[in-house]
DNA sequence: CACTAATCGAGACGGTACGTCAAGTCTTCCT
DNA sequence: AGGAAGACTTGACGTACCGTCTCGATTAGTG
């Protein structure tokens, strides 16, 4: 066994965990990730520092869980991408919604913090991807597969790769703020990319 | 005058600046951005702390300048994207080279550090984009415009948007390490995206 | 009732008490008073922390009881100072024994700890004096009184004061380690002091 | 070299040192040694914690120096024990003064703290004895030697031992508070002990 | 002999202080 | 005047214990 002692999770205080999630998200939103301290989270949550150190290995881990918890509660039911038969319309709908989400201050703060830390912290990134990002990307895979079955997407296309044509550009603009992230942009990306995936005449 | 004192840049020590760049890049490469300290850079550069604080406002700014300096020396001549007449081949060439660069440890360390900090620090991001990223993206704009002229890319396509179909996915995989970043991946992205930009039959 | 709850001492675990005494003395001997913690005592004794807090108000109290228990077992029969008729020889015998005891590591550790804490903690000092020190000093009073009766000590001497001529110097050397504590020293103290108490010719 | 880095004492801030001495003595006087924390001293002195850790290895060391500094300023001129020719009167005078000092709250607090820590910390004790206690005891040696020359004290008496007949009992009562420490007590000790040192008829 | 109440080992909790590290400012001495 | 050096105040780090507070699991004496 590598660790000296594993705490008994059945004894864990649910109250404290909630308070820590709330405090962490609030502080990151207010002051940014770098200025958020474990001491600050503990103080705001009305909790001893040790209670944080007992259950999480790092500030990043706290925030990831808090964000996961937030995302989980937000998306009760893990909504699939709609399938109206019109792939382009469906993708535009979803991507516009994503644009709105990324532009909303409540999400932006913690999400950026997590993304930034993930860029530089492979362990966190792995969890971030596994728990949050990849499940969302799989929604695209399923929707695109359905389209493939009905002839909207060319057979032979590697869907896990193709979906990045949609999500990659959006993420890029959001992360580095190169240019404004708008509905029009989302529409353009869908239009340009989708035609590339269409069956060749 | 708002600042207490503006240092006289004509008296600045070139030796120290170089030493600071070198030390900063070396430390970020060895230990990562978070573990790189101003004190450490000063010590490694054989320089007083004040010499750093006199000329740069933050650790991120030092690193950005050091990286800019590195990139400048690396690309003497700002190589344009080649134009052999075969857009697909030209893009694959460039994107494969980009993949190799992103996968090389020497670049990866400092670049990640800068990207991560930019995600969370809009001022730095603005400089990063203006000085480093956008000039590179404009290379794509020019190559795509040439293709538009010769009929390889549909008229009416917004090129500044379209180029992100290529760069966005690559950057995304690199930053978050979702999946391996390979030549095959670069090729697939080019193939899928380019067809979407092609003139409609 | 002022206290929240008085524990029922009839249900008290004798096993635990012994284990706590042993652990406390061992730890103080090994690491010193300051580095001995209640948590450490509990762990070493295989006992819950609460079991200590239930029965003792402080670390010092635990140690005092442990030491008292030790002293009690050591001196089954509260040996009086011998009375061979030769006061000087009797006192030298006892003081030499005291020197040996103070120099023995087993006693030294806990006794120092207790003394140090008593210096700074009047409540503990009161108990320490009442339970341990004063009873021992009364042995001197009784032996000196016997000597007074047989003319070895001047009438009018305040014995409770006089005995400190013997014990004070020894204790002083022991506590502050000013100079080595030897049999010769004990002998000298007896010789010098005793003549001062003798009847005046 | 064993230590990582030795600070440059010529650059040391005199202001900080004074403030630390004052704060340390004040806090020990007000709250006792155990409740005095390095953090508290730093805060009260308006000084960073690191400034304390840079120059002293421990709380005890700070206090010792502070106390030494206090004692030094208090006794400008290292007053010798007076020699009126009447040894008994001279000793009573000095011992009564000592009694008053030990009973004065300003001295009592810090001195107790130091004594208590010395009991349990041999390194500190060594310094305490060397710098503070032994010089004072040597005053007794000198006065007793003068008495020996004029026939007030028996030839052959080991003075360094003999003086403990006076100081030992006083210290003992003070440290453990066995009984009240009064002028009468001091007088009695002098009377009893001095006769023991007198030339034998 | 079962019941039931208190003690037990265990350890999570909100806290305080520890001793360390680095931040950014200031001062001194050198070139 | 800039630079090397490094002491200063500040504040967060992660750790160790504090004393309090639940938790089942014994473990007695009582009904």
Automatic annotation (TrEMBL), chains A, B, C, D:
Keyword DNA-binding: yes
Domain HTH tetR-type per the UniProt entry, residue ranges: 14-74
UniProt cross-references to SUPFAM superfamilies, sorted A to Z: Homeodomain-like, Tetracyclin repressor-like, C-terminal domain
Keyword Repeat: no
UniProt keyword list: DNA-binding, Transcription, Transcription regulation
PROSITE patterns named among the record's database cross-references: HTH_TETR_2
DNA-binding region in chain numbering: 37-56
One protein family per Pfam: TetR_C_11
PANTHER family linked to this entry: HTH-TYPE TRANSCRIPTIONAL REGULATOR RUTR, TETR-FAMILY TRANSCRIPTIONAL REGULATOR
Protein name as catalogued: TetR/AcrR family transcriptional regulator
Species per Swiss-Prot/TrEMBL record: Streptomyces maoxianensis
